[in-house]
Design brief:
A hairpin with a 4-residue loop joins strand 15 and strand 16. Strands 11, 14, 17, 18, 22, 25 and 28 form a 7-stranded mixed sheet that branches. Strands 19-21-26-23-24 form a 5-stranded antiparallel sheet, with no helix packed on it. It contains 1 helix and 28 strands.
Length: 346
Amino acid sequence: MKKSKKSYYSGIFYIALMIGVICGCADYPPFNITHPPFVNQTSLNIYEGDEVQLTASPAGANFKWASDNEEVAQVSQTGLITAVGSGLATVTVASDDDETKIDVVVRIRIPLTEIRPDKTSLEMALGGEIKLGAVPVPEDATGLSSFKWVSQNPEIATVSRGGTVKAVGTGSTSIVVSHGDIQTTIPVVVYYAFMYDRTNWAVHSVSSTYSGQPKERMLDGDFGTWWHSAVDQTFQYAIIDLGEPLLDMSSIDFYIRNDSPYRDTKTVLFYVGDNPASNAGHPDSDPLWKKIGQIQYVSQSDEPKRVLEIPYGTDVNGRYLKLYFPDSQRRGIANVAEIYIHGILR
């Protein structure tokens, strides 16, 4: 039987292909797979004088360490980095067949000289809470992450890691804020706060009264009623009989009428004394009245409540409290809705 030309040429092609494959299997050099050293740090940001121990693995291998800028960072053959000057350097650790590079940044160390808290002392009511803050001196001191806050007596005041102080018992203690050997002490006094009973109080006298709004309303416990003075007066005043001196007085809550735009009261000056008849005019001209503070309403749309804080040590020894109104938002008018007095026991 005769083979077809197609079968003949297919056989020739197959033989040629096999010869090509066999001839193409030439020898090539082997490909070497290397293993760069593993280092426990890929980069460093350190300060002059710092020393950092680097570790390369696998353990027991023959490593060589080198720095390309020994004026910035030097390295021993055990991998100990010593920062000697500010700048940039690259440390190389080489094995027999590969190497790893570590970038090193060295900065000048600026030492901390002082910690400056935002409050130099604290007076707190029992149960109160205050967040303290502090800034480093100089502000660009290096190596700071956070300050450490500690209470010297946690039975009086506790402090959180972030500087929040809580008053948990009456008495005196201190909060210490520190970083390393630098520290600052903040004295803390925790007192018991209370509101004085108004049962025996009475309004002794007022400068004038507008019809239907008598002086007794400023002590009736109703914020919707008030004493209202007559209009077009040069000044106004009100004198309250406290029954006795309130020697632990620490603050006064003062309220005017709450129906804007008729909040006419503007400036209120507070005095204490023992002679209610003494000088119905401006108390500053009478030494028998002792000024303990003042408050002010900027406009008739202000909120009706103001708080007068009375600094510790202020002379508050006086049976009578005088409210003096030297000006007004309009037409020489004053009004008082309620007044409460707080005290503290240190």
